[in-house]
């Protein structure tokens, strides 16, 4: 048996026995590439995801809301950094990943190409977008690549706080004045369908799902996760007396799940291709951040060089 075949056999056995794959282990090239694509895309989503909410920090309606939102947006930055580090263990660099984002080669979650128009959107984002992210990320705590799985455990703890702070904003608005309630309903109307799209295309059309399931990178399919999200979220909407904007939504006793209406996949692909309401703005914000921060990075590199120069001078003297 060739050495590649025997290494592949060992790899497959680890996957079968639920032993995590670690950075120094041999892995098929496609497994490595799939993970780099997925983890970097996930990292970019965390970072770009700070943009729609970040603009509301100065406009939060109270000190308490401001502190919570600020903490949440900072958490997302932290998630991005863990994930870039996890991807770097596979042999890519943060610089390469960020370049790919800025040139449009790498994607991030399309949900962040929608604008946060009112304060209620901050509630809807926490409740629905972070809620959908949790479904996906809880599954990823058991993903087969060790560094990714471990990053997810910590991230998930923070995501559940994000989801609750969003739901609490919605609860408060839904119990408030007529105008506040209408604002909450309007935010739900606009964020509901894009949140369902977050799980990706239907299983039948998802080109990566089968291989990712076989490698145990993914443990549940797009449609399974989407269903799980709908089942968890519909009762939450009922509890605060808001209406899910889907006339076809109905409990299915037999399936023990909600049936729901057709998703507008044309809209989904349109946003993925760059034609969503904020694609251009989001990318420009990231490109400008890189440009405006260049002097900080240059200064840090110059300082590090000076330090190491000083150290080696001292060693020569000694
Ligand atoms: Fe996050
Ligand atoms: Fe989050």
Offer a concise description of the structure.
This protein has helices at 3-16, 29-48, 50-54, 63-88, 94-102, 119-140, 146-174, 178-197, 209-214, 222-239, 265-275, 279-292, 294-317, and strands at 250-252, 257-259. By secondary structure, it is an all-alpha fold.
Structural write-up:
The chain has a two-stranded antiparallel sheet. The protein contains 13 helices and two strands. It is 69% helix and 2% strand. With 318 residues, it is an all-alpha fold. The termini are far apart. One fe (ii) ion (FE2) binds next to helix 6 and helix 7.
Instruction: Please work out how many helical segments DSSP would assign.
Output: 13
The value of Rg in angstroms is 22 Å
Report the major sheet.
2 strands, antiparallel
Share in helix: 55-70%
Q: Outline, from the CA principal axes?
A: globular
Strand order of the largest sheet: 1-2
């Amino acid at each position: 048996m060739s050495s590649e075949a025997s290494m592949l056999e060992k790899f497959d056995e680890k996957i079968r026995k639920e032993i995590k794959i670690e950075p120094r282990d041999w892995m098929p090239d496609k497994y490595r590439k799939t993970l780099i694509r997925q983890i970097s895309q996930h990292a970019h989503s965390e970072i770009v995801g700070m943009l729609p909410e970040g603009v509301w920090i100065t406009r939060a309606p109270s000190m308490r809301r401001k502190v919570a939102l600020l903490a949440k947006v900072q958490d997302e930055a932290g998630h991005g950094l863990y994930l870039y580090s996890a991807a770097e263990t596979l042999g890519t660099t943060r610089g390469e990943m960020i370049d790919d984002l800025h040139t449009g080669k790498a994607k991030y979650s399309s949900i962040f190409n929608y604008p946060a128009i009112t304060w209620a959107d901050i509630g809807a984002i926490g409740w629905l977008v972070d809620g959908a992210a949790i479904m996906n990320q809880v599954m990823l705590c058991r993903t087969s690549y060790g560094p990714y799985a471990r990053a997810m455990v910590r991230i998930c703890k923070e995501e559940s706080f994000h989801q609750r702070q969003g739901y609490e904003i919605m609860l408060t608005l839904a119990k408030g004045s007529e105008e506040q309630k209408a604002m909450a309903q309007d935010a739900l109307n606009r964020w509901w369908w894009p949140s369902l799209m977050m799980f990706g295309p239907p299983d039948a059309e998802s080109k990566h799902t089968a291989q990712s399931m076989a490698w145990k990178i993914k443990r549940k399919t797009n449609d399974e996760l989407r269903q799980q999200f709908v089942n968890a979220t519909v009762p939450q909407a009922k509890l605060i007396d808001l209406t899910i904007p889907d006339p076809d939504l109905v409990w299915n006793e037999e399936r023990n799940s909600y049936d729901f209406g057709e998703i507008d996949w044309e809209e989904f692909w349109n946003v993925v291709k760059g034609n969503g309401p904020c694609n251009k703005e989001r990318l420009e914000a990231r490109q400008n951040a890189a440009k405006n921060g260049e002097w900080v990075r240059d200064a840090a590199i110059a300082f590090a060089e000076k330090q190491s120069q000083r150290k080696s001078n001292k060693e020569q003297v000694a």
